[in-house]
Amino acid sequence: MQRETVVSGVFVGCQFEMDSCEWKDVSVGQFSWQRGRNGTASDNTGPSIDHTTGTELGWYMAVEASNGDQNSYAALQSPAMRQASTECVLEFYYHMYGQGIGELKVFLQEDLRKTPIWWKSGDHGDKWHRAEVAVGRTHQVFTVIFEATRTFSELGDIAIDDIVFLSCSLPESQESCPPNTFTCSNRVCVNLSRICDFSDDCGDGSDEAQCDGLVYKQRCSFEQGMCLWDIRDECARWMLDRGEGAWPLNGPPRDHTRNIAAGHYIVPSSQSQTAEIISSTLLPSSNCTVNFYYFSYGNSSSARLTMHMRTLHSGEQDIVLWQQSVAYGFHWRRTEIIFSSLVNAKIVFQFDGRGKSHEEYIAVDDVSFSPNCVHDPDNSQLPVLPPTAPPTVTPTTPTTTEHPCRADEFHCWRSDGRKCIATTAHCDYSIDCPLGEDEETCGPCTFEYGLCSWSDISQANNKWQRVKASENTQPPTDHTTGTGHYMYVNLSSAPSKNEVQFESPLLPPTSPYCQLLFHFHLGGEDGVRGLSVFIQNEENNRTQLWTRTNSSEKHWTLEHLAIGKQQQHYRIIFSTPTTSLQADNGASLDDISFLNCETSYQPPALSTAGCSFEEHLCRWVQGSTEDFLWLRKSGPTETVNTGPAGDHTSGTGFYLYIESSTLNKRGSVAQLKSPVLPRTGENGYCLKIQYHMFGATVGSLKIILHPVESRVSTVVWQRAGSQGNEWHVAQRHVILHEAHQILIEASVGGEAGDIAIDDLSFIEGACAPTDGLCDFEEGRCNWEQEVDDDLGWVRGSGNTPVIKFQPNFDHTTNTDSGHYFYMNSSSHVHTGHTARMFSPLFTAGTSQCLHLWYYMSGKDTGTLKMYQEYSNGVQLLLLSQSGEQGELWRFAQAPLPHTGPEYRVVVVGIMGQSEQGTVAVDDVLVSHYPCTSPGHCDFELNICSWRNLMAEDDMDWLRNQGNSRAPSTGPSVDHTTNSSIGYYLYVDTTVGHWGDRALLLSEIYPPDNRGQCFTFWYHIYGQNVGTLNLYINNRTLHDNGDKLGYLIWTESGNQGNVWWSASVTIEQIEPFWFVFEYRKGKASGGDVAIDDIQITYTSCNPEPPTTGTISSGIGIGVAIAVAVILLVIAIACSTLYMLQWRHSNRDYSTEHDALGANAVFDLNECELEDSET
């Protein structure tokens, strides 16, 4: 449904008796909502009757836990609706029954904002339950989404029925309003008690406008702070919070004022103590009305919220006006309290949290007073009771040290009194003295009391010096206290070949998990090798641990360095060169310490290294080789058209991301480091990371395995460029027999390249296989080699090449350590020899699809064919590729027909004319959802075999839907489905500069003597938006240096908010491919998109281009009018051209004539400009 045609006041519920009432399943993958009745396929689960009829014949929507992957979710989305009233309520019935039930959530979706409004989890018995949740005032187009998740068990399902929207239409206008009511600007009548109470009861906001002029004082929505509400020091505080940070543990997911997760409300800072918040003073008032909204979630009769009227400062003689226990609810509830007072008074909200359990809370929002409430302009204090006598305090006198410590004890000489510890506790990396004297000369140092046995060993004139922080030092503060001491070396004097070195005392042996912590500051320009850290053993052999080459922006930066197991004594050396005469070119150190270094240290369980970032970074730390850091965030990122809309864990929680705005340099790298992890067992562990990489200029994300002892880092997984606007999982099976760290590095690709990560987990054992997928990382996945073929398929990887001609990296991990299968060729084989391998048996089903990635590169590359083979031996050819395809992994997919009960997939490699060709396959998947045939792509599931040419262009093509209102994210509907939930490819026209380009590469197509027709739909909308070009290329042109080929179609300038069709006849005698090129225009904005690409083996019909749906609701008549105007302009231009031609003897050829002749364009000499005609 188009956003512009969504009718206000139409709210679509459903009983599911006849159909799904335009409610649509928008799940990704197998786990989905299905209309069903009389139980689901899972044994002993699922409702046997629906709620509507109460019989086995009735229908409902259900999600089966026997379908889908662990922690997957199914999503059911309503039709688009708009303009819901303040009183709008969603009612439905749910059935959650079974041992493996996950969670059912209801979301309110507005543009990219997705807010949870209801949630339940677990087994609720074999019966239907009624649910009611407030939708609240929504001013724009919205949908409601039911989202169901599952746990690890497969026993259980979730069902819903009888969805209905109540009181959702806006109030109707009246000819006149009765007395004692307020007449809104739209002539709606509203009770006077509902005026200026932060609720849009009129429907146009007029009842909430000009409230100050209507003598409504001391209203507070808490959006700008606490207003004049105060707190008592004797009690716990109330504090501001909002849903995106507080939910689900400490507050509701949205506020009342704005009805969004970013809106503010107040909650007790301690939900288990007594908290008070107090209003400003009220003068004597009669019939004073206080309106407020509260949100309660939980089930505690002892935890309660109370409203008091207070007349004495001490709180004695408080009068209770209202109270409410914590109870389950999904509404902001409006409360109206009327009272009178003959003396000055204050209103007190008091929360007593005693007896409250986990995930129970109460919140308050939108407090307002009626005009009858008289406020004290001086906010004077209430009368106080006579003060009580202060308690008597008896001072204590510390005892003096009478006897020294024994010979086998160490004296904590700085600590008060007599304090002795065992000598063995001296210099063991563990502080035993109260003030740390036992470790002070053993490496750790704050430099407040001296150098702690650290020393300068420099041969240069410059020396490390202990300085006191002041306005004349750089930095002007130390790290320890702000006014204390730190170590500093001035590098601005005459350069020297010798480095300035600062050495530790001799340090004792360590555990494998030992880390060095220090704070540093580097001044001066970037590019100078500013500071390095070395470890030196007893034989004086040095190993570099770390280096930093650029200046630091902050005064002090913290670094954690893994030292690892040191079986002998060792030293740490900080070293820096004197290579610059620039002022302020200095290095500073402070607060050196050691973590987990005692030899008795044992690390916590491996699973504790996981992190969802809901509260902090857990035990992960930022790397400091640059100042560029990972940021913790909830909700969408600041940069438009990039980054996730919410976290992966819940959609409303926190994640980490890198900010790619123009303030950060392209290529900047943020590093996140795990705690030092123990050596793995024989089975290792599975590392899983959720990642999100979406935007026009996304950089790269890497997972690096860093052994602490050998210090040879290995990239075990990486991705570059946009991966789609969704969360993906990266996983790697790690087996390493030494202590190690996981490093996660993200780089900036450009201004629209936010990269996010979430939900890091460590699970003992190998990673669980995905149903139907083989990535060959753990072995052959029961694929077998034919015994009667000529060649063999060999499992290999890029870092252990058996032959010269095999891929240097796999597709799964995009690294040289990942695995794939390649066709083994040698000089002893001949052209036409085959290698055959086959999969295990698959059970046939409807809407199955084969996906795989293949690699075909090198001289005289052979042929790759995929077959579907049935039990009777009949084979069906699914796809075939031949010849050189470039040094890259390409994607292919093909539908799997359901013509037999079982089948297997057969991979056949055919030898080319030389052994120098490479044929390999990876990531073979049999999915249970449909896909398009080769040569056709509608982008509904993926981008098929099309790919961005990141090495050649400036930005990426992106896959998106039309239901986004973010600027320049493409048209409001796709062409395939003509709806806002269909997909297409688009270019973010707000990114980059005039002339920047985005390149999209097709698969390689075989020639055909019958001719071929290449068709696609395009959408170019906006002034000076740019140019869309289509090139065709082949191996001959490419080998001669023409990377794009020759131009066969072009369009530029504003073509209206319309999908247009284009067709190009192809006549090639050798394999060929296409490249779509977008060239950015002068403007920053507009839509450029493509959809429904197809190549057919017949010549194109000579019909003029046709238009598709006008995506913004422009009528056909408007399109015709535009065409007529363009025709008139064209005639006028032709006349001017003829007049010009008469004054010139030159022979010009138009651009279209040149295109018709298939001329080859030199991009360096001819650059197409925008044309509005």
Walk me through the structure.
With 1173 residues, the protein is mainly beta. It has six domains: 24-166, Jelly Rolls; 217-369, Jelly Rolls, CATH 2.60.120; 455-595, Sandwich (Jelly Rolls), CATH 2.60.120; 606-764, Sandwich (Jelly Rolls), CATH 2.60.120.200; 773-927, Jelly Rolls, CATH 2.60.120.200; 936-1096, Jelly Rolls (Sandwich), CATH 2.60.120. Helix content is 4%, strand content 38%. It is built from four helices and 69 strands. Strands 58, 60, 61, 63, 66, 68 and 69 form a seven-stranded antiparallel β-sheet that branches. A hairpin with a 5-residue loop joins strand 12 (181-183) and strand 13. Mean pLDDT is 84; it is low at 386-403 and 1109-1173. Residues 380-401 are annotated as: Disordered.
Q: What is the count of helical runs?
A: 4
Shape: globular
* Distance between the first and last residues' Cα: 31 Å
Class computed from helices, strands and strand pairing: mainly beta
**How many discrete structural domains?**
6
- Give the class-level CATH name of the largest domain: Mainly Beta
Query: In percent, how helical is the residue content?
Result: under 10%
Looking at the structure, the CATH topology of the largest domain is: Jelly Rolls
Q: Average the pLDDT over all residues and give the rounded result.
A: 84
Tell me the strand percentage band. Answer: 35-45%
| Main sheet specs | 7 strands, antiparallel
Low-confidence stretches: 386-403, 1109-1173
Q: Return Rg in Å.
A: 35 Å
Quantity of strands, as a count: 69
The CATH architecture of the largest domain would be Sandwich
